[in-house]
């Protein structure tokens, strides 16, 4: 690690750099999967999906920079080559690799966004427990943005018919809201 006047302990910085590089691999992988969707989408919703996927790429580019630059701020090195990403990414392989129609790309992008959002939320907790609020905040921003994009992509999968969950499906949040 590089020396820095950052007041986080070296052990916390080292753990956060490792976390950041793990999520950097996911962010770069997400970005490339989104570009594959953008390039290859076909069908009646082509223009809407083509533009949507490219807008998500723009935000994914910002996530990549936020994560990489935070690793460097903490005295680390950002590991973001194609080989490093291929080795470290936890995202599943893009599911619509054979071209695919709009719906296949919507499903594949939704899956990737869901996985990426889950790993961002896990990173929030890890960084917060290490008392690195700045890194936690970065992942909170990424999680919030990813959830927004997931909502917009999933709207292309939904039929518009909403079904009220049964009382057994509500979980704690549903019980808390009901009381």
Automatic annotation (TrEMBL):
Residues 17-159 form the Ferritin/DPS domain. This is DNA starvation/stationary phase protection protein. Belongs to the Dps family. It comes from the Bacteria. Pfam families: Ferritin. It comes from Anaeromyxobacter oryzae. InterPro entries: DPS_DNA-bd, DPS_DNA-bd_CS, Ferritin-like, Ferritin-like_SF, Ferritin_DPS_dom. Coiled coil: none annotated.
């Amino acid at each position: 690690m590089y020396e820095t006047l950052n007041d986080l302990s070296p052990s916390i910085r080292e753990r956060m750099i490792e976390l950041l590089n793990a999520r950097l691999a996911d962010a770069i992988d997400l970005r490339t999967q989104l570009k594959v969707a953008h390039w290859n989408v076909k069908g009646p919703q082509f223009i809407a999906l083509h533009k949507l996927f490219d807008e998500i790429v723009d935000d994914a580019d910002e996530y990549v920079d936020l994560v990489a630059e935070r690793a460097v701020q903490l005295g680390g090195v950002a590991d973001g080559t194609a080989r490093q990403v291929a080795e470290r990414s936890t995202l599943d392989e893009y599911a619509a690799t054979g071209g695919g129609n709009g719906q296949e790309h919507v499903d594949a992008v939704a899956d990737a966004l869901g996985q990426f959002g889950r790993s961002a939320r896990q990173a929030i907790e890890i960084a917060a427990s290490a008392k690195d609020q700045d890194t936690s905040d970065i992942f909170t921003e990424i999680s919030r943005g990813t959830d927004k994009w997931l909502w917009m992509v999933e709207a292309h999968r939904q039929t518009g018919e909403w079904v009220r969950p049964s009382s057994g499906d509500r979980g704690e949040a549903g019980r808390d809201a009901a009381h």
